[in-house]
């Protein structure tokens, strides 16, 4: 006696087999960004570059004309080369300017006591606080 097991698909699993895209049988065209379609073609919708009745891809929000454009002007390598040239030029210009930038036009002044008294050092008069009476330190009473 041999026992065999036969498994039947549930209704949800059968639906997955019948409709693998799970989109109700809607025809899903290949993903093509509308930006790369011919802008001078005879389109029914000139802005979206599509014809009347043409099925829309399920990722139309990513592939449509109103999505961000794909930047194809430069490759990444050329962009890095241009960025490096720019940085090198700026640093080179800064180096040249630092070589030819004039020194200070005058020599710093020096003072005998280093402006100690004028800048509030030991020999300077203390500021008066309004609550305290004026008392001079060097007065002979």
Task: Detail the topology: elements first, then pairings.
Elements: H1 11-18, H2 60-63, H3 76-100
The level of helicity is 25-40%
Describe the sheet with the most strands: none
The radius of gyration computed from the alpha-carbon positions, rounded to a whole number of angstroms, is 42 Å
Structural class: mainly alpha
What is the averaged pLDDT score?
A: 81
Oligomer class: single chain
Overall spatial form: elongated
Count of discrete alpha- or pi-helical segments spanning 4 or more residues? 3
What report would you give on this structure?
The protein is mostly helical and 141 residues long. The protein contains three helices and no strands. The protein has helices spanning 11-18, 60-63, 76-100. The N and C termini lie far apart (132 Å). The mean pLDDT is 81.
What does this entry show, briefly?
Helix content is 26%, strand content 0%. It has 141 residues and is mostly helical.
What characteristics describe this protein?
26% helix, mainly alpha, elongated, 3 helices, 141 residues
């Amino acid at each position: 006696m041999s026992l065999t097991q036969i498994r039947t698909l549930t209704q949800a699993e059968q639906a997955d087999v019948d409709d693998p895209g799970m989109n109700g049988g809607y025809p899903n065209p290949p993903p093509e960004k509308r930006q790369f379609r011919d802008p001078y073609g005879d389109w029914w919708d000139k802005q979206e570059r599509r014809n009347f009745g043409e099925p829309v891809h399920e990722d139309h929000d990513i592939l449509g004309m109103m999505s961000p454009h794909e930047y194809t002007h430069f490759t990444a390598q050329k962009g890095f080369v241009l960025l490096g040239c720019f940085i090198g030029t700026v640093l080179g210009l800064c180096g040249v300017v630092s070589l030819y930038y004039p020194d200070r036009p005058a020599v710093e002044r020096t003072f005998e006591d280093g402006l100690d008294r004028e800048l509030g050092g030991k020999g300077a008069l203390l500021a008066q606080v309004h609550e305290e009476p004026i008392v001079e330190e060097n007065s002979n009473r």
